[in-house]
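Hi everyone,

Forwarding the result from last night's run.
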Amino acid sequence: MSDQRQSPSERPVLNGLVALVAVALGVGLILGVVALVGTKVLGLGSDDGDSSARSTVRQSMYLPTPVETDEETGPLVTLHTEDTDEPATTDTTETDIPEDEPTSETTSESAASGEISLQALATAVASGERIYFSGVYPGGEGAILWVQRFENGDWADFPASVGVTNGTFSSYIFTGVSGVNRFRVVDRDSGTVSNEISVTVG
């Protein structure tokens, strides 16, 4: 009989403890949900914040894919190099050879190997004007040719000389002697003498 009387009095205590635990669990669950929702809404999550920051940085540093422009720039570069190369070669050939000066091709035809062929640019000049001359000397590479003028029935040394390069030579002289002047060049080392040229001065 004593056990039956004690069991009804102990039940309210057990029921109260169960209810208290249930309320505590419910309140904790609600607080956890509220905290989770709050961090999602406010963006306080560490992982999400770092990933969003990293994605933002990556997007700001991203470079677009280059667009091919070969069709526009390619032909322009090719045409530019062709235009600059052709005038350069033309200018050097024009400036190296004066307009009226004879070339080595015309003079080389009249000179045999070992002979000196001489010719003047003009057959008449004013007093004190330059007398241009040129010629070829096959086999005389590096030789020094001395100019001579015919004076008083003999050839006299004139104060001028010219070197032979690639088998050709060209230079000019001055003279104040009026009338017909006869000139030639001579290689003193080999004794080879050129033909004479006549230039009227004055």
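The beta strands are 117-120, 124-125, 131-136, 144-151, 154-163, 168-173, 179-187, 192-193, 197-201.

Cheers,
N.
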